[in-house]
Input
Amino acid sequence: MENPLHSSAYKVLSTSIRADLPESVSQSPLSRRGFMLLAATLSGCAVADPSRTLSGAAATKTTANSAYRTPAIRGPVPRNPDNSLSSNFSNDAGIAFSRVLVSGNYIAMTFDDGPHPQNTPRLLDMLRARNIKATFYVIGRSVEIYPQIVRRTVAEGHEVGNHSQTHRLLSKLSDSELRQEMSRCQNAIGRAAGVRPRTMRPPYGGLLQRQRELVHKEFGYPVILWSVDPLDWKRPGASVVTSRILAGASSGGIILAHDLHGQTVDAMPATLDGLLRRGFKFVTVSQLLAMKTDASSAQMGASAPSY
Ligand code: NI
Output
């Protein structure tokens, strides 16, 4: 049976569409800018770059996701309730957590490996629209390059945590190298935003028990792992990231995601709205720790995931 895509009718149709487009545009009473506005509106893109060529604006069939921009929010989005919950947790609360036993549907959304010059501000806009405060585990090296993004993150009420200076696998480092990774990132955050991080997350989740005790004792950081990992860094597609997070979310959960990756940020409107509609209330990691109900619960084992 002949493939319908190879039928002569389809060829004629597709050829005529391609052949017609430039011609119809050149004869159109619409101005060039008017057409670009129209084309941009139809494709859901913001009209931001007047240097975009006509062919670029018309070529909406892109295979890469890099051109994707989250459509502008139309209509109201669900809103996280205001909270004035304390973020003062006790240092005795524990050394490592993958979740926290709390009463109530509270969860903490965490974003690692930023700041990123485009994706982090885009995410901050999404969070602000929903009154959600999140926790960002930043890399000191990137903080030094984009301090203004960290400043904005803190100014908008989010928590910033220590994710090391250079994102090395800390379990391979000597104690003095580990201290350097922690203190350099802590200092970079302090210089950028005037705050001291209160929790840390080891890159790849990799930190030996002895090292966990060291950073807790010397820096006062509890080690924050996660209860939900959507493997978003493998770029499975925004809808898959959303469905994995929605499937894994539970009270007291700590959700791992990466604002370094555009696709993860693309997934956030549906993810955040889905969690809000399921009745979850977002808090920062420190707020979650401060509402912990059982001092002996939720200690984390020593497993280190593979990334
Ligand atoms: Ni990381």
Q: What stands out?
A: Residues 112-113, 163, 167, 203 surround nickel (II) ion (CB under 6 Å). Confidence is low (pLDDT under 50) at residues 1-59, 295-307. The beta strands are 96-97, 106-112, 135-138, 159-162, 223-224, 254-258, 281-282.
